[in-house]
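In keeping with the milestone schedule agreed at the kick-off meeting, the structural modelling team has produced records for the first pair of proteins. Each record is given below as a sequence line and a structure-token line. The laboratory manager (R.T.) confirmed that both were archived under the project's standard naming scheme.
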Amino acid sequence: MMDLGLPPELLRKLDQMAIVCRRMKAGRSQGTRRSPKKGSSVEFADFRNYSRGDDLRRVDWNAYARLDRLFVKLFIEEQDVALHVLVDESTSMRWDNGQKFTLGCQLAASLGYIALASYDRAGAGFVSDGLDSYYGPLTGKPSWRGLWSFIGERMDAVAPGKHGGPGEPPASLTDLDNALGEFAARRPVQGVTMIVSDLFCKGYQAGVRALQAVGQEVVLLHVTSPEEMAPVLSGELKLVDSETHSAREVSITPSLLRAYVQKAEAYVDSVKRFCVSRGAAYVHVRSDEHAGEFIMSGLVAAGLIR
């Protein structure tokens, strides 16, 4: 399906789902979820005192008959929410034949489809040392084809082992803070921003804070490879960092592997603790998981999809 490696039957399942926005946002157009604004939908919300110029059709005449005072009915206005999915396309996301990056693209496409199919808005972008590209936000279910084409073209253009932009990959860790800060500086439509990254970068915390400062509800989808969390290595090896290009001669022993696994798990825990402290959602996903299965299980269980 559009060269994204997603089965056609997945769309039928995604059609029945919706993005969960834990904090109601004031959208720009009418949709299917409640907004903090009071408007003209059919669901009653509250009363307020009548003011000169108010629509007489909203006056509660039964209350006037009982209390001899004029009250106006207020109703919940249903509005849309914008979903932004930012996929890390740095070299560390593509070292394993692009498995992490491919999963990130599939998640962006699937989540965007869910949002558009449920009358919300959706956009997707790619980040490395900066905001490399962004498409949207779009509205209307038919827009999913344009969104998927954008994602598919980027997935094809950014081959494993190549940098997301022109030229050679930088000999330094990815500056995800700068990338997220650039996106926040665009003042994106308030809603939910999902970041798909392995977080092998200089930092991500300042970027998350920047997004929250402009009203985004942040969700961090932390993608790691099974080999990264529990490598199967032994003997005398020369290991090369995929981003910094630094090399180190190492003698792999069982005790060294145990120490590495502890460090890797500690890093995952530190990311999770940071997200909890900031009120951001965190979900850890393995790169060998199928996008559809992860959405149906991991994201539903986390309360991010319903």
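The second protein of the pair:
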Amino acid sequence: MHVIRLAIKNIRGSGFRSIAIFLAVMGVAGFLLGTTIIIEGARNSLRSGLERLGADILVVPEGAEVKIESALLMGKPVDAWMPRDNLQKIAQISGVAAISPQIYLKSMFDAPCCAVSEMFMVVYDPDTDFTISPWLEKNLGRPLVTGEVIGGTYVFASDGVDSIKLYGYQTRLVGTLQPTGTGIDQTLFMTLDTALDMSRSSVTTAMMPLNVNPDTISVIMVKTAEGVDPHRVAIQIRQETPGMVPIESPNLFGMFRDQMNGLLWGFFAITLVVWLVTMIIIGIVFSMAANERKREMAILRAIGATRFFIFRSLLTEAGLLAVGGAVLGIAVSAGTLYILKDMIAGSLKMPFLFPSIPAFIGLFSAGVALALGTVILSALIPALRLSRQELAVAMRE
């Protein structure tokens, strides 16, 4: 009899034991993949957000550091202002290669053109910008003109048209940025000319006019010269520009990093305990099954089956249960996380970017391999015992 066919018959003939092992593997595989996706999703989101910002240093008003980070990370509204004259002070710092200001406007709530409750609006300077302009050059082939906007992945134009009405002002959505899992996904970007035009129009077209002061800015994006240490430049900015605080890109989202590290260690500890308990349970189930199947294995030996055949059939049985349980557990876990990803990000107060297809395939394969290895190790000793038992002794029991 073929070893796989025998393993399938044994699985069908031992319903309770097979279901117990299947559910145990399904649960632990789903849990392991779920925790891994959450942690990796947060890391991917953070990395994508920092790449999209494209700045080595962010200069913010003193006291607004946490608010700015919250705005960039989760798209929360922020009220942070400093004089536009600060641009000249930063430009004179040794080692600064490029600077570009951004203005954070009042967020819009429950906007029909945004898939989330808040839409964050950011004004950038197209003459100096190095954050949005590279994307525009690559995908649009030109800068934005007055009245045009681009948005994050959650910003869209409704009813199949490309226009968005903001404060009664009609804008044209000309592009959507790739998802990052951060507040950038619910951000609408526009030039200062568009913002000023919208502000003037809102006096007569909106219930609450939009106030835009061109003499104030919210943050200064800084790119350091090649070969210059950004940390040294940040120290100079702190020493020579009172009232402004530099945030180095690697140190951005520090509070979130601490939260993520805490979650990482918590998930790791829980995962290790769950994995060990699952191995013990599966090992106990296989040991109990080994005691019950001594006579069955002895009969197989008596009709010509070798010890290696019996050993292979038992491990094949364990492997089939492991692969089946792992595939179903991972599929259920991944599907649930994908559907509830926004709710998870909101409840954990952390950004979340679902892995790409290649990355997910890698995680899926690793999860199945880990489940297979776990079950095989748990079944190894009982399988060896059964395959090495003395035929005459087993037949008498």
